[in-house]
Amino acid sequence: MFPEYRELISSLKGNDAHFTRLFDKHNELDQKIKNMESHIEPGTAFEIETLKKEKLALKDDLYQHLRKLAAA
Questions:
Q1: Which of 1, 13, 23, 40 could form a disulfide with 35 if both were Cys (CB 3.0 to 4.6 A apart)?
Q2: At a CB cut-off of 8 Å and minimum separation 6, what does 58 contact?
Q3: Residues 6+ apart with CB under 8 A from 20
Q4: Residue 28: strand, helix, or coil
Q5: Whole-model pTM?
Q6: Which portions of the chain are predicted below pLDDT 50?
Q7: Rounded CA separation 31/33 (Å)
Q8: pLDDT exceeding 90 applies to what percent of the chain?
Q9: Tell me, what DSSP letter sits at residue 16?
């Protein structure tokens, strides 16, 4: 995710609590979606779609945070 910000992401993980929380939540949702799509965890198509939308919103928040910090 965001290869152009790879170094910034590495430096933020563990040093920026807000970024770390968003990043971890995004990864948790990604895994949950994969598990539901693979039928490892139960989930309806509606639940999966809702989680995907939540994950996308987090990704947008992460990107905005990275752009703001990179511009500073």
A1: 40
A2: 22, 25, 26, 29
A3: 12, 13, 14
A4: helix
A5: 0.88
A6: none
A7: 5
A8: 93
A9: -
